[in-house]
Design a protein that fits this description.
With 340 residues, the chain is of the alpha/beta class. The chain folds into two domains: 171 residues, Glucose-6-phosphate isomerase like protein, domain 1 (Rossmann fold), CATH 3.40.50.10490; 139 residues, Rossmann fold (3-Layer(aba) Sandwich), CATH 3.40.50.10490. Helices cover 44% and strands 14% of the residues. It has 14 helices and nine strands. The strands form two sheets. It has a five-stranded parallel sheet, sandwiched between helices. It has a four-stranded parallel sheet with strand order 7-6-8-9, with helices on both faces. Strand 4, helix 6 and strand 5 form a beta-alpha-beta unit. Helix 4 runs antiparallel to helix 10, helix 4 runs antiparallel to helix 13 and helix 8 crosses helix 13.
Length: 340
């Protein structure tokens, strides 16, 4: 039986192809105008992965401070001197949280604002049209997300990667197909098929610890989000050294059935190996390493995560594309944020 989520993944090549060829002139110009500023990237749910990616790109290309936040926490993330660029990301532009974040950002009047939305005719875009400092990048996404961010993540990730590379007149590693990008980026041979086999022991665990570095941060954010939002399994995220400040105690509790997934780049290959060598054999531990520089690895890790979640869902009998939607689920989603 083909899961709806797996069928959705099979459609992502079209979104990848579209994002490789879409005109990024306006997005690249907006990025260029923000390069001399600290950046705050805002998103919820799947858009938080795109926020993590743009923050990673900004730190690497612009060598500037960049952080991610959610709409609720945005106000406390903006400096009083207004010296910041705010990027707000939304696939549909209809959620009240991101609209409230736009209003909150406009009240603080940062130096630059970028609104990246996958629905040109949306309340978010309509709201942003009245904000003079906002660069509105409203793109007609070719594919529709079902429950989790798939088409929007692929499209936004590729567009943002191209925009930052273009701003610095550098090439972006974007092969002709999404599969080729992922397979070529993985350090271990065999591509996604081999990766699925290597990760099988992890999906029998009851608690997953996802370790990352600066380059694989978007992948860690994305995988935790997918596992949590589809209620597949509990997962927690820590960088390699943050993990060593207490979270390793999970491995001393085999009754918790923990597992470790290490997401590594060339810069942390040795650190990842040294870390996992010290772990008890009772806990499954898998390392995924990607080749390339930080932008290449950040993009590939985020896009690989889409498939990792599919592997987990298949192993645990959960279709991530068809979650049980009860009334309270949508009631919580549609709640309005408190007035500021």
């Amino acid at each position: 039986m083909t899961y709806a989520y797996e069928a959705e993944i099979a459609e992502l090549e079209a979104s990848y192809s579209w994002a490789r060829s879409f005109d990024i002139t306006r997005l690249a110009s907006a990025v260029s105008r923000s390069l001399d500023l600290p950046l705050v990237a805002v998103g919820s749910g799947g858009a938080l992965t795109s926020a993590a990616l743009v923050a990673t790109l900004h730190r690497w290309f612009a060598e500037a401070l960049a952080l991610i936040t959610t709409p609720l926490l945005l106000t406390g993330s903006l400096p009083k001197d207004r010296r910041a660029a705010v990027v707000l990301i939304s696939a549909g532009g209809g959620n009240e949280d991101i609209r409230a974040a736009l209003r909150a950002a406009a009240e603080r009047a940062p130096r630059r604002m970028i609104v990246l939305c996958g629905q040109p005719e949306s309340p978010l875009v309509e709201d942003a049209n009245s904000i003079e400092i906002a660069d509105i990048i409203a793109v007609p996404l070719p594919g529709r997300d079902r429950f989790l961010a798939t088409h929007s993540l692929v499209a936004f990730s590729v567009l943002l990667t191209r925009a930052y590379a273009s701003a610095f007149h550098r090439p972006a590693f974007l092969p002709t197909s999404l599969k080729e990008l992922i397979d070529a980026s993985l350090a271990a041979p065999g591509g996604l098929s081999a990766l699925a086999r290597r990760c099988e022991p992890l999906w029998r665990c009851e608690n997953l610890l996802i370790l990352h570095d600066a380059s694989t941060f978007p992948g860690a954010v994305d995988l935790e989000s997918r596992l949590a939002e589809s209620a597949i399994m509990p997962a927690q995220v820590a960088d390699f050294r943050g993990f060593a400040h207490g979270r390793q105690l999970w491995l001393a509790r085999p009754d918790k059935k923990p597992g470790v997934l290490a997401l590594a780049s060339p810069d942390t290959r040795n650190l990842a190996a040294s870390t996992l060598e010290l772990l008890p054999n009772s806990a499954p531990a898998v390392t995924i390493e990607w080749n390339g520089n930080t932008p290449d690895v950040a993009l590939a890790s985020a896009l690989t995560s889409i498939h990792l979640a599919a592997f987990a869902g298949r192993a645990r009998g959960v279709d991530l594309g068809k979650p049980p939607i009860h009334d309270f689920v949508m009631q919580l989603y549609k709640m309005k944020m408190p007035a500021r």
